[in-house]
Amino acid sequence: MTSPRPALLSDVIAELDRVYPPVLAEDWDSVGLVTGDPADEVRTVRFAVDATEAVVDRAIADGAELLVVHHPLLLRGVDTVGAHTPKGALIHRLVRAGCALFTAHTNADSARPGVSDALADALGLVDTVPLDPKDDVPLDKWVVFVPDADAAAVRDALFAAGAGALGDYRDCSWATTGVGQFRPVDGAHPALGSVGSLEQVDEQRIETVAPRSARAAVLAALRAAHPYEEPAFDVFAQVGLPGPLGLGRVGRVDPPVTLREFTARVAERLPTTAWGVRAAGDSDLRVERVAVCGGSGDSYLAAARGAGADVYVTSDLRHHVADEHLRGGGPALIDVAHWAGEFPWCAQARGVLDRAFGERPGWSSAVLGERTDPWTIGAVDPGR
C-alpha cells in the first residue's frame, strides 16, 4: 500500500472552507488565503488568534508553511503592503519565509463547530444551540418539465451544476409524470413535432433544489442538456429557515452553580490576561442556562435575555450598555478579554486539520501560546 502524499495548501484550504464555509462570513469581512501558493506542500501548521509580530516570528522560527488565524490582518481598505508599513512588513516576512497566512473570521463565528462552540465547550456547557441563528444557505427550488427519454440526462446535468444537495445527501430530486402540450409556430425549430401542429408528449416533472448562488450555473446546465428549444421550467426562491448555524451559543451548566462559582470557572478555564474576568450580578444567583459569544458580543444582549439565560459571557462590554441591560432585568454578565474568549477556537481548528491530515508525511501542528491581547498591565490598589 502506498503512503499518502504530503498535503498541499489547496487541500488544507478546502478542508478549512468545508468546516468554516466562506459563505457564512459577514459582507464586510475578509476571510480565506492572504498569502501563499495553493500548490505548495504543507507539513507544519501553526494556529493563533492574531497575526502579530510575535506570532509571525514564532511561526517562522517553527518552520511553519502555514499560519491559520482568526482575526484578519488585512480587513479594512488597504492600498499598499509595502514593507515600510507594519502590516506590509509582516506580509513580506511571511512570503520570504514561505509561510502562507489563512484567516477564518466571521465564517468561523457562525460555523458549527465554531468559535462560540469552542468557548462553550471550555466552560462545560451542554445541549448548545445558536444564540442568534443564521438562516440556512438560501435555496431555489427548480421545477423542470422534460420528455421521459431525456429526464435522466437533464437530472444529471442539474446535479453536476450544483443542484440536488440536502444536508449530507446528494443527487436529491422528486419526479412525477404527466402530459406536456405545445404548438410550434413560424420561426420555431422544434425537437419534437412540426410547425403548426399541436403536440402532446409524455413528460416528467422534476423537482430539485440548488443554492441561490448557483442559479446561473444551473440554468446554463438546464438549457444545454434539455432537448427542447424552449424548455419549460419554474424557479422558486425558498424562504430561509433558522438552522444549526449562527453566532453565539446557549446551553446548560449541569449541575447548576452560583454566579460566583461560574465566574471562577471562567477565570480558571480561559487563559489569564491583564483584563481579567469581570462579573456583574448577584454572586449567589443560580446559574444553569448560559449564553456565550466569542468576541465582541454586546449587540446580542437582547438575544441572551430572550433566550432565558441566567448569565451571558462575552467580551468588550461597555459601561452604559451593561448598566442599562442590568437595570432592564437582563441576565448577569461576565466580561472576558476578547483574545481569551476566542483562544479556545485555535485548538478546535487544529483538531479539524489534524483529523484530516494527521497521517500525512511529516505533518506537525501546534497552537501558539503567545498572548495577542493588547492589554498587558493589570493593577489594583493594594490598599483596598
3D structure, described in words:
The structure is a single chain. The chain has 384 residues and is of the alpha/beta class. It has three domains: 125 residues, NIF3 (NGG1p interacting factor 3)-like (Udp-n-acetylmuramoylalanyl-d-glutamate--2,6- Diaminopimelate Ligase, Chain: A, domain 1, 3-Layer(aba) Sandwich); 116 residues, Udp-n-acetylmuramoylalanyl-d-glutamate--2,6- Diaminopimelate Ligase, Chain: A, domain 1 (3-Layer(aba) Sandwich), CATH 3.40.1390.30; 99 residues, Alpha-Beta Plaits. Helices cover 29% and strands 30% of the residues. It is globular and about 100 Å long. The model has no long low-confidence stretch (mean pLDDT 94).
In short:
The protein is an alpha/beta fold and 384 residues long. Helix content is 29%, strand content 30%. Helix 1 (9-19) packs across helix 12, helix 5 (115-122) crosses helix 12 (344-357) and helix 6 packs antiparallel against helix 7 (215-225).
